[in-house]
Amino acid sequence: MSASSRRSGGLLEGLYKVFMRRTSVYATFVIVGALVGERAVDYGVRKLWEKNNVGKRYEDISVLGQRTSE
């Protein structure tokens, strides 16, 4: 058997051995991955929204909420 035929599924086999062999490790990997992915998407969308709305946000308007004294 040649070295290339033994290593044909090297990456996938390695991932299986590390993450998917036990159900508890796989479930933890999926849950943590979902949480990290959600935080990354939330951060990216928030930064994109803030960049596109500079000057239009409530925080950017300095006179909002101030009353003139009579």
Question: How would you explain this protein's 3D organization?
Answer:
The chain has about 70 residues and is mainly alpha-helical. It has three helices and no strands. The relative contact order is 0.05.
Summed over residues and divided by their number, the pLDDT gives a mean of 83
Poorly predicted ranges (pLDDT <50, ≥5 residues)? none
Report the count of strand segments: 0
C-alpha Rg, in Å?
26 Å
Give the class from helix and strand content and strand pairing: mainly alpha
Helix-strand layout with pairing:
Layout: H1 3-6, H2 10-20, H3 23-52
Main attributes?
70 residues, single chain, 3 helices, mainly alpha
Task: Sum this structure up briefly.
This protein has 70 residues and is mostly helical. Helices cover 64% and strands 0% of the residues.
